[in-house]
Automatic annotation (TrEMBL):
Keywords from the named record: ATP-binding, Cell membrane, Membrane, Nucleotide-binding, Repeat, Translocase, Transport
Record-linked CDD domains: ABC_Carb_Monos_I, ABC_Carb_Monos_II
Top-level taxon: Bacteria
Principal location listed in the UniProt entry: membrane
ABC transporter domain ranges (all copies): 8-243, 245-491
Species the sequence originates in: Microbacterium limosum
Membrane topology annotation: Peripheral membrane protein
Pfam families hit by this protein: ABC_tran
Protein name per the record: Sugar ABC transporter ATP-binding protein
Length: 493
């Protein structure tokens, strides 16, 4: 690969937040026509680095060079002017507007307050088409899939003529199939000479896509490697974590007990059609399928968060009618939602308060703060977060914020657990810990449903796999018969 001048280079960047040195001498070089993967555990400093490159954070010290020339970005607009675009993980689209308007957002030519839609279409449609955007360009983007929304964000970057596109975990909410589509687009941009810097916790895809890899640990660059110098996933894991990790997959230690959760013909109008299933005590049932197959909708219907009707739901042999999430909790069902952004994290409150939110420890309504901190500290440490639990939740990295929500549900004492994408956005080390805790719950006799788009996770963790397609269960595959090919074939139909 070229030893030419990097399009963008960061040297020895330092960035401190009160009490935390988020970047502690980070370096990174991005070249034209290369896909550069940025790796590291939760809290390693990836997002902080990207924000510094995009002018959203001002580093305390260090240098950023564009085309070999030092720059000092005061704001993202300065970065955009130098041809740098960022696709945020929390998509920054306006949900009520259609794709065309989102692509040209903030750059429309307004004439006496009248915007030239014709010009907007002329600019946006080719960019969208080039990226394989297949939805209607006049549908409000809020109604599109995450994958299609991401393409709109990318189209916006492309339309600004960006030479460097920064992406923070673009595939975190995508299925394998959707990620593949995004990768095709990324490769196309790369072949046109665009530089791409992207963050991912999914190592197989990194090996597949990246030309160069930078690994951060505790705010420092520990390695910059060309793809050809990377010796498999375990090499990357060692660089990130500093030790070897076990493969995914925890065999159960006891045979499943009696059937505990029984769902008979549950439907969510328009989304889920007559889904029946049974989960035994001690069993982890995986639910695979594409995004939009109705897996989360099934769970939301079951707990009464979406309008649903069923012929019957029995828990521990007792018929139950669940009309709202409160009744679900009372019936002993804990649901870890997929959409963790809106799961009541109060970013201003402490980590401890957030973890113990559903049932704060104490007696007669008096909060036992010491116990609260103890309980929270234990589960967060188990999940690999090093931040003191008195700190505000908002001061955590994206992945560590997810751990709060996961920890909260792991702490609930329920009989049925539904985990929806439990390890999305969570680094490889903590992922193994979540798997261990899930298996532990099963071994205590809990009935567990795990919805996951991470196939190795589904294959490694599930005692049995249900595949959903278009709102129906289309296959029930035993652990012994399950392979990636079998699952994908059922999911795609
Ligand atoms: N606004 C902030 N205030 C205080 N500390 C912060 C703030 N933003 C980030 N940090 C801290 O800086 C460190 C790096 O966070 P960063 O978000 O860059 O991690 P990351 O590598 O992106 O992790 P993840 O994989 O979880 O997204 C963490 O210790 C985090 O708690
Ligand atoms: Mg991050």
């Amino acid at each position: 690969m070229s030893e030419a001048m990097p399009l963008l280079e960061a040297r020895d960047l330092v960035k401190t937040f009160p009490g935390v040195r988020a970047l502690d001498g980070v370096s990174l070089r991005a070249y034209r026509g290369e896909v550069h993967a940025l790796l590291g555990e939760n809290g390693a400093g990836k997002s902080t680095l990207l924000k510094a490159l995009f002018g959203a954070h001002r580093p305390d010290s260090g240098t950023i060079l564009v085309d070999g020339e030092p720059v000092a970005f005061a704001a993202p607009s300065d970065a955009i002017q130098r041809g740098i675009a960022m696709v945020h993980q929390e998509l920054s689209l306006v949900p009520q507007l259609d794709a065309v308007h989102n692509v040209v957002l903030g750059r429309e030519d307004a004439r006496a307050g009248v915007i030239s839609w014709r010009k907007a279409r002329k600019e946006a449609l080719p960019a969208l088409a080039k990226l394989g955007f297949t939805a209607s360009p006049s549908t409000p983007v809020g109604r599109l899939s995450v994958a299609q929304q991401q393409l709109v964000e990318l189209a916006r970057a492309v339309a600004t003529g960006a030479r460097l596109i920064i992406m923070d975990e673009p595939t975190a909410s995508l299925t394998t199939h959707e990620s593949d589509q995004l990768f095709a687009v990324i490769r196309q941009l790369r072949d046109q000479g665009v530089a791409i810097v992207y963050v991912s916790h999914r190592l197989p895809e990194v090996l597949d896509l990246a030309d160069r890899v930078t690994v951060l640990r505790d705010g420092s660059t520990v390695a910059e490697l060309e793809r050809s110098a990377v010796d498999g996933e375990s090499h990357l894991v060692r660089l990130m974590v500093g030790r070897e990790l076990d493969a995914i997959g925890l065999p159960r230690t006891r045979e499943p007990g009696e059937v505990y959760l029984e769902v008979d013909e549950l439907s969510v109008p328009g989304m889920v059609h007559d889904v029946s299933l049974a989960v035994r005590r001690g069993e982890i049932v995986g639910m695979a399928g594409m995004v939009g197959a109705g897996r989360s909708e099934f769970a939301l219907g079951l707990i009464g968060a979406l309008p649903s009707h069923a012929r019957g739901v029995r828990i521990g042999g007792r018929p139950r009618v669940i009309r709202n999430p409160g009744q679900a909790i009372a019936a002993g069902i804990a649901y870890l939602p997929e959409d963790r952004k809106h799961q009541g994290l109060d970013l201003k409150l402490s980590i401890a308060s957030n973890v113990t939110l559903p049932d704060p420890p104490g007696v007669l309504g008096l909060l036992d703060r010491r116990k609260q901190r103890e309980v929270a500290a234990r589960v967060m440490a188990d999940l690999g977060s090093k931040t003191a639990v008195r700190a505000a939740a908002g001061s955590l990295s994206g992945g560590n914020q997810q751990k709060i929500v996961v920890g909260r549900w792991l702490l609930r004492d329920s009989d049925v657990y539904i985990f929806d994408e439990p390890t999305r956005g969570i680094d490889v080390g903590a992922k193994g810990e979540i798997h261990r805790l899930m298996r532990g719950l099963a071994d205590q006799g809990k009935a567990i449903i795990m919805i996951s788009s991470d196939l190795p996770e589904v294959l490694g963790m599930s005692d049995r796999i249900l595949v959903m397609r278009r709102g129906c269960i289309v296959a029930d595959v035993s652990r012994a018969d399950a392979t990636e090919e079998v699952i994908v074939a059922h999911a795609a139909g």
